[in-house]
Write a structure and sequence with these properties.
binds phosphoenolpyruvate; eight-stranded mixed β-sheet; binds magnesium ion
């Protein structure tokens, strides 16, 4: 029912059905929200009558009347979309209070202070959410918060709880004065008016800026809408036997199976979440409220078994009696997601398939996130650089320069700086700054505070509630342990222990990564690393797509193999030329005046290139290795700085002026579409011949020395016509034959092409007569299908995303409609003319989960991606196979 009732409404209804203690209430569906949005804020006919009837039933269940002065029913009006959007939309609590009903509440509860506190909270919340009374530009907080602070100062009160009933009565009066001043109308006393005001505002909050920004970030469609749940209020702040809390059925940071959470006695839910008071660990509830604790234990295990997933619970204890206010699948870190899913399979709660489908492949990134360099952190610790410890809200290690505002964090990050966002506490307005930062540090708030929840979801390192920090946002300073830090100073966060460390501490790969690379020292196996291995094994057993890597150095190949790569899908040979003395030989080759000059340079390059290929074949053993002939625009290799030009002229023995003339002759207006790819091979076939010779000689050598069977696949880039491929293929084949003849052995190999130009896709049938394989170069195919320069796209793609012209950056997520259509044609026509044709992808999209899914549906043989994305692609490929099973081919 989530689509209709929102997550909150559906789960409340489900908990009712399970017989759990839930306060009575009703839900206005997401359909109403969409109707209201389509009809300029009007409500569908009959809604008011239905709400009235539903409210009467709640009155009956509670034995209280809405607006009744002696025994008033009070309600909360809560937002709730299909998926949880924490803190993005609005909620109004304590609704139904006015100057008369507050007296009834005071009498019924026997606690006047409590009643007036509820009333002042209501006026404040209603004023903010429904009447839109917020801090104005230049003001630090809302007028309500300031009035509260003023009064506390006058009374020398440190906590809100230090204010007495008389103070709160006065505060309500002051708050109502603020409402009258800011809106020109008195605060609505009629509970029905209040109710409809709140319903309208909560529906409206679906379209507030925060919610819209969040939807963009999470790709949530605008037309889902929010539901509104109206639920009878129960109170955690009625005195010492009342309380409220938030709990998880397993640890949301590490995934450990233990009941985990926080509570506060004599408090309302917002106190726990907003981080105004620091809550107690849940285990202590056994002493504060033993009966409620026992019940809560039973409820939590029942809910986890019922939903077969880790649950996030909100509860309130009203005078010793437990009420469940909410339950939903708990947000969790990538670490926790993997561990929980795998352990639930072992506990027989879910199947392997369910476990695989539950994990967002992109979240595996977190498991591979860096940790501190152990020696450096040890040194920092013994030098007394640990300033304080907060809560370990988001695991991982981060180091960066302090920014006190989200705006600064965004700007500094854009300028290429590593940033740590430091805030007293965060709010939904800080989202973009949090997203931009390496890590987040807050002075206030618990494990369930906004900062903690959001950081965890983003996979950001976060230390929350470091109470010893004194942060002065105005002067942009922070004092801790007697030392003061300003914006731009370096700090480091250990999101796993909660430590805040002075200065920069270098980071290094995570334990999972180190274990995978065989660099784990002695010690206990890491439970997350164990779970990760199981998950990857299961992925491999379900997926049909093979996963290869894009790598051009032996150490990259080793990393990729450890992460599960099954071969190389793209070795960009030009990348091998950038290092050391090779670049000079390449420059000589490019700038040679004639074939003889070029061949002289190529003779220097041959042994270097052969050694590179040998290194790769040794690591890759008998796995396939796709090597691409030279591709890039030549200007990338040319010296620009005057001193480099002079040095090159000297080594080539030609005058500097001549070299300069040659360089400017090679200048292109649009090098990405210029003399690159196989066009280089057309002009200089000797380059292709030399590369092929180096490759086959290396393969022969490694085969002979290691007994392995190297499987070279040689690939021609940027082909637009079958003729280009035929000519290049002839060069490759004659080089191969010559090497095999001289070496007296044969290495089986494949010869294929990249499909990265629309014309190649459209004439695939003809190209496939020569090609034994196709590899989609979707970076160039996207560039050429859209006519958008890869190198200049950054300027306007953000705008296109903002305006919703592109649902996603097409260079990150494959455009199925356009680029995908070209791929479809190439697959169908290529296979028709050459049934043995093998097809893969090696553009950036090969590591993007949604694109991997598309490649599975196209029936490709493999995807190829950068080494660290290999695990993501393995899981994404398994999910794709589970979602759309098809015959193995
Ligand atoms: C491509 O175009 O998708 C590709 C893999 O090649 P490159 O990025 O090197 O142009
Ligand atoms: Mg390309």
């Amino acid at each position: 029912m989530k689509d209709l009732l929102g997550g909150k409404g559906a789960n409340l209804a489900e908990m009712c059905k399970l017989g759990l203690p839930v306060p009575p209430g009703f839900t206005l569906s997401t359909e109403v929200c969409n109707w209201v949005r389509d009809h300029g804020g009007r409500y569908p006919r009959g809604l008011r009558t239905e709400v009235k009837k539903a409210l009467e039933r709640v009155e009956g269940d509670m034995g209280r009347r809405f607006g009744n002065a002696r025994n008033p029913l009070l309600v909360s009006v809560r937002s709730g979309a299909r998926v949880s959007m924490p803190g993005m939309m609005d909620t109004v609590l304590n609704l139904g209070l006015n100057d008369r009903t507050v007296e009834g509440l005071a009498k019924r509860s026997g606690n006047g202070r409590f009643a007036w506190d509820a009333y002042r909270r209501f006026v404040q919340m209603y004023g903010d959410v429904v009447l839109g009374i917020k801090a104005r530009k230049g003001e630090h907080s809302s007028p309500f918060a300031r009035a509260l602070d003023d009064l506390k100062r006058k009374r020398a009160a440190t906590e809100d709880t230090d204010l007495d009933e008389k103070d709160l009565r006065q505060l309500v009066k002051t708050f109502k004065g603020i409402v009258l001043r800011r809106t020109g109308t008195p605060f609505p006393e009629n509970p029905n008016d209040q109710l409809w005001g709140a319903i309208g505002a909560v529906f409206g909050s679906w379209d507030n800026e925060r919610a819209i920004a969040y939807r963009r970030m999470e790709s949530i469609p605008d037309d889902w809408g929010t539901a509104v749940s109206v639920v009878a209020m129960v109170y955690g702040n009625m005195g010492a036997t009342s309380g409220t809390g938030v709990a998880f059925t397993r640890d949301p940071a590490t995934g450990e199976r233990r009941f985990y959470g926080e509570y506060l006695m004599n408090a309302q839910g917002e106190d726990v979440v907003a981080g105004i008071r620091t809550p107690q660990p849940i285990a202590k509830l056994a002493r504060s409220s033993p009966q409620a604790w026992r019940e809560l234990q039973a409820v939590q295990s029942m809910l986890e078994r019922h939903y077969r997933d880790m649950q996030d619970l909100e509860f309130t204890i009203e005078d010793g009696r437990l009420f469940m206010l909410q339950c939903r699948a708990g947000k969790r870190t990538g670490f926790a997601a993997v561990r929980i899913a795998v352990e639930m399979v072992k506990e027989r709660l879910i199947t392997r398939e369910e476990a695989l489908l539950r994990i967002d492949p992109a979240s595996l990134d977190q498991l591979l996130q860096p940790v501190f360099d152990p020696a450096a952190i040890q040194k920092a610790r013994s030098a007394g650089r640990v300033l304080t410890r907060g809560l370990n809200a988001g695991p991982g290690a981060a180091t960066g320069m302090i920014a006190f505002t989200p705006e600064r964090a965004v700007a500094q990050t854009a300028a290429g700086k590593a940033v740590i966002l430091v805030r007293i506490e965060t709010s939904p307005e800080d989202i973009s700054g949090m997203q931009a930062s390496m890590g987040i540090l807050t002075a206030r708030g618990g494990m369930t505070s906004h900062a903690a929840l959001v950081a965890r979801q983003m996979g950001k390192v976060c230390v929350a509630g470091a109470g010893e920090l004194e942060i002065d946002h105005e002067r942009r300073r922070m004092t801790v342990a007697g030392r003061t830090y300003k914006e731009g100073d370096w700090i480091s966060l250990d999101g796993t222990s909660g430590d805040v460390i002075e200065g920069k501490v270098p980071t290094r790969p995570s334990p999972v990564i180190r274990e995978l690379l065989g660099r784990r020292g002695k010690g206990r196996a890491d439970p997350v690393a164990d779970a990760y291995h199981s998950l990857m094994r299961w992925s491999d057993s379900f997926r049909r797509l093979k996963v290869r890597t894009n790598a051009d150095q032996p150490d990259q190949c080793r990393t990729a193999l450890a992460l599960g790569a099954e071969g190389i899908g793209l070795c960009r040979t030009e990348h091998m030329f950038f290092e050391g003395s090779k670049i000079d030989a390449v420059r000589e080759m490019i700038l040679a005046e004639d074939t003889a000059g070029r061949e002289a340079a190529l003779r220097k390059l041959l042994p270097l290139q052969r050694k590179d290929f040998e290194g790769i074949f040794r690591v890759m053993g008998s796995r396939p290795v796709t090597v691409r002939t030279l591709d890039p625009p030549l200007h990338e290799f040319l010296p620009q700085a005057e001193k480099d030009v002079r040095a090159l002229a000297r080594s080539m023995g030609i005058p500097t002026a001549r070299l300069r003339r040659k360089i400017s002759a090679l200048h292109e207006l649009n090098p990405m579409l210029g003399h690159r790819g196989c066009r280089l091979g057309m002009s200089f076939p000797e380059i292709t011949r030399t590369q092929a010779r180096a490759l086959f000689e290396a393969a022969c050598t490694v085969a002979r020395k290691t007994g392995k069977k190297p499987r070279p696949e040689i690939m021609i880039p940027l082909v637009a016509t079958a003729k280009e491929l035929e000519l290049q293929a002839a060069e490759v084949r004659s080089s191969a034959d010559e090497v095999f003849r001289r070496r007296g052995m044969k290495i089986p190999y494949l010869l294929g092409t990249m499909i990265e130009l629309p014309r190649a896709a459209l004439t695939a049938a003809e190209i496939a007569r020569t090609a034994e394989f196709f590899s989609f170069g979707t970076n160039d195919l996207t560039q050429t299908a859209y006519g958008i320069s890869r190198d200049d796209a950054g300027r306007f793609i953000p705008l296109y995303l903002d305006k919703g012209i592109f649902p996603r950056d097409p260079f990150a997520g494959l455009d199925e409609e356009g680029v995908g259509r070209l791929m479809e044609i190439a697959c169908a026509e290529g296979r028709a003319s050459n049934p043995a044709l093998k097809i893969g992808i090696c553009g950036e999209h090969g590591g993007d989960p949604a694109s991997v899914d598309y490649c599975h549906r196209l029936g490709l043989a493999y995807v190829s991606c950068s080494p660290y994305r290999v695990p993501i692609a393995r899981l994404a490929a398994a999910q794709a196979a589970l979602r759309s099973p098809m015959e193995k081919n």
